[in-house]
Transcriptional regulator with AAA-type ATPase domain (Azomonas macrocytogenes), 751 residues
Amino acid sequence: MLDFPSFGALTEIVGESPAFRSLQSLIERVAPTDHTLLVCGPTGSGKEVVARQVHACSLSPEQPFVDVNCGAIPENLIESELFGHARGAFTGAISQRPGYFQQVGRGTLFLDEIGELPLSLQTRLLRVLETRNFRPIGSNEALRFEGRVVAATHRDLLAMVQEGRFREDLYYRLAVFVLEVPGLEQRREDIPALVKHFAARQSRQLSFSPESLKRLSLADWPGHVRQLRNLIDRLGVLAISTQIDAKQLEPFLAPSEVSHDGQDSLADALLALESDNKLQAAENLLIDRALQRSGGNKSAAALLLGVNRKVVERRLKSREAHSREAETLLEQGRQCVEAAEFRQAIPLLRRCLERLPKRDDVRILQFEAYRLLGVSLRSVNGWLCTEACACYEAALQAGEGLGDGVELASMQFGIWATQLMTLELSKARATAQNMLQRAHDLGSPAALDEAHVAMANTLFWLGDCEEAIACLARGGLLQGGENDERSGLQGFDLNALALTFEGLAAFQLGAFSQARQAMQRLLLRCGKDNPHPFNRALALQGAAWLACLFEDRERLGPLGADLESLSETHGFTFYRGIGQVFRGCHIGSLGAFAEAERFMLEGYQSHMLNHGGRLFHSFQAWQRGELLLQADRPADCESLLTHALDLALEHQERTYLSELQTVKARARWAQGDPDGAEQELRSALSTAMALDSVSARIAAATQLAQLLRQTHRCGQAAEVLARALRGVALEVPPPSLIRALQLLAELGAEH
Ligand SMILES: Nc1ncnc2c1ncn2[C@@H]1O[C@H](COP(=O)(O)OP(=O)(O)OP(=O)(O)O)[C@@H](O)[C@H]1O
């Protein structure tokens, strides 16, 4: 388990797909820090490979990499394995033995399958992470843990937290940075390169025809990269010829004989079938497959099934009756939707779906039924209804390859928007990825523009501003001029959205002049001569947001008010809420704190949260926190920010993470806890570094320098601030940068 890898010994990591590149860019940023990391992803997707890569790029790659599989060590041994024991600590402990926490030194302790760690040890692990101290069993001496923990799991840890099987505090401790390793289905583009990579390790030189590579790219890989590697290994030994074409490949792709374990997984797969009556669904599957294998011949199918032909005929007849009933229900549902009687449509469409068999020949009916049910649910329960979103997803799956690709792309946009607004950011990224793929396949420039904007928007919220800008650049969507009018498939101003996220991401990256330019361009789109109210709302949102970041009070007031009233008139609920939050920021900057808070609360809670939208949550919490500080209510501010940080971490919404930490630190300081504040500010600074966020770095360093100055450590203060400002572009500096520069000058003079 103990391992001293060098760069050369590291498995070569293969992957160029956007999903994989995005992971790589996060690794590049978080690996050379001392943050604890959590690697998530399905079994076989490459979590260990990622952990080893993190180690190789860490601050101490020459130190050990200790790989511990928490699920593989018997429960009664795991404590002594992890923490070590003193001589005579228990029967059999004939000599003292160092545990993994000690063996790892300053290296990386990889806790694989962390979800399997017993609860009692979760508590101990948390204590080590918090105090950096641990005590071997039977020893009085506390030892210091100097390494870094990288944990991994294929489980849904948050669900385990909710079921009480995983400690919530440990989860949040681990989940500050989650490296999500995408499953192979999210990075099919990488399959040919992976195949070549694994083929190169075989003793026989294998070569693959284009058709065979295509077949492999389209196959299902429930065991992900490991399954693919195993298949190539088997080909390396068993393939008759080394020239692998699609025909040679097929037997290796066919499911192998069902072993005892396989029987369980087969039964599990059947139990997971989407149907109220699983027995019926399983029976239908068997009949369909038997008919398929016997070319539609019922007698032959009956033979395969081991029943009489009459049994097959009876089952098929009853299925036909069900299908006819389903068709009638679908027609009735459609009529209700057309007459805008959505409430009545819902039960009809649900019954229709219950009766529709899950078979290929009725996919078009499934598509239509799910689509109409999605439409009805949205109309009754609001735009962000999650069940409606699930219906659209099911419709999309059923409609794949059937008909109008543009309609499917539009539906996918709806799914993405709901996932984004409800802060399901990982799902939103996967959907945006599929949108890009679909748009490429469709060859539709409008769909491609839309997909690029969706991806950039998602990446921004995930805290990957550099990749967000790169994505806009790939889509040719940077610096949209006044006459650029790209409207995607949905018909709204994509350039305004692209400019918004260009400006916001550039601001975070410290490209202040690019951010200001984006604001100027948005301002040109805000005017009353913009004929489309929704497009005006989009431009107003972007311009107001940037004005807020640049502390441009004169602009912020009117922009926020315009956004609020325009959205109120036209029923854009979410944008009305955003307008109110910006108005709150403006009113607060004039000193009317109570009124400002009222605006912000109403904007966020009534118009966003109550409708299921949480997207704006960290930004508004940051701004509301500032307000509470100014209103001299630091305790309220701290509790608001603690909650906001929890939510941001839970959803991987990282963009304003460091800003939230900085405001929380100020609240602690204002309550007379400078030590706690200092710790929090250092953590904010390291978060800003890991996210490459220059604006957050300036804010955290300024506060930290002030705190150090006040506690008579001017030299340190100047050093911290000078380091944070190194390399920052000084043209058109925002007020926060001007304040930082002033403070640095004062510190220089004092020192
Ligand atoms: N990107 C990659 N490039 C090259 N090889 C890879 C890549 N990802 C995974 N592999 C290979 O696939 C196999 C499985 O990877 P790994 O053990 O890291 O998966 P895992 O997610 O940790 O699995 P488990 O959940 O079972 O622990 C290994 O042989 C690994 O070398």
Notes: The CA atoms of residues 115 and 227 lie 23 Å apart. Confidence is low (pLDDT under 50) at residues 1-9. The chain has four domains: 2-182, 186-253, 261-403, 616-751. Residues 11, 13-15, 41, 43-49, 112, 154, 197, 225-226, 229 surround adenosine-5'-triphosphate (CB under 6 Å).
